[in-house]
Design a protein that fits this description.
Length: about 240
């Protein structure tokens, strides 16, 4: 790592632009998402740490130089599809010109841990949680909408304001056990019921932000999803 420039960008998406240029969506910690043009000959790859020198004129950004800024990440198989899911979430939801330093660090760490073969589901749920917080729609896992502490023996419903409401019903049909919510708060995904609850919860919370927009990466991931969770294949 000695002599390598600091990481300041990831490429979220790229597409040909005019005859000899590319239109590139960048994730930059101090500016959030940027859309830039690149006329250089070096290929810009997804999921790789870069140091990118760019110049802005209003909202128009031009990339002047590109250097790989760390160990090449070799994602393959399931990890590659999950990284595509992360990129699509960021590309759709991350605002332009809004600093996102903490989320940038979470994204980089998630890619590295996916590469290392760590269990993907806790990584995805943690990233989704941090993304919602970055967007200003973080979920309060400490208290319900009435201000009372979440209790492990109670049942809760999730409303459209990212808050929990106590449910007097003894059967959770479209809600959550308090114990699962407490596990999620501590990023403890050892229980199958907690993993199911977290997937349902964050998917619903993200749906409130996505609206009618469909994530294409979920189509690619669907064939990888086993009917049994024991396979270890996560469902986004």
């Amino acid at each position: 790592m000695i002599g390598l420039p600091p990481v300041n960008a990831f490429v979220l998406h790229r597409t040909p632009y005019r005859e000899s240029s590319s239109l590139v969506r960048l994730f930059v910690p101090g500016q959030g998402q940027l859309v830039a043009t690149w006329r250089g000959t070096a290929a810009l790859h997804l999921y790789q740490p870069y140091h990118i020198d760019w110049q802005a004129s209003g909202d128009w950004v031009t990339i002047r130089s590109v250097d790989l800024a760390g160990k090449v990440l070799r994602l393959k198989g399931q990890a590659l599809y999950l990284a595509l899911y992360l990129n699509e979430l960021l590309g759709v939801l991350l605002p332009r010109w809004v600093p996102a330093e903490a989320l940038f660090g979470t994204y980089y760490a998630t890619l590295r841990r996916l590469e290392s073969g760590e269990s993907a589901e806790p990584l995805l749920r943690f990233f989704e949680r941090r993304l919602l917080e970055q967007l200003g729609f973080g979920i309060d896992f400490e208290r319900d909408r009435a201000g009372e502490l979440l209790q492990p023996e109670r049942h809760y419903r999730f409303d459209d304001q990212n808050a929990f409401l106590q449910d007097p019903s003894s059967i959770v049909v479209d809600g959550f056990h308090g114990q699962d919510l407490i596990h999620i708060a501590h990023n403890d995904y050892g229980s199958p019921s907690t993993r199911r609850a977290a997937k349902q919860l964050f998917r619903r919370a993200l749906a409130l932000q996505l609206g009618e927009r469909e994530l294409l990466s979920r189509r690619f991931l669907q064939p990888l999803v086993s009917p049994s969770h024991s396979s270890g294949t996560p469902n986004t």
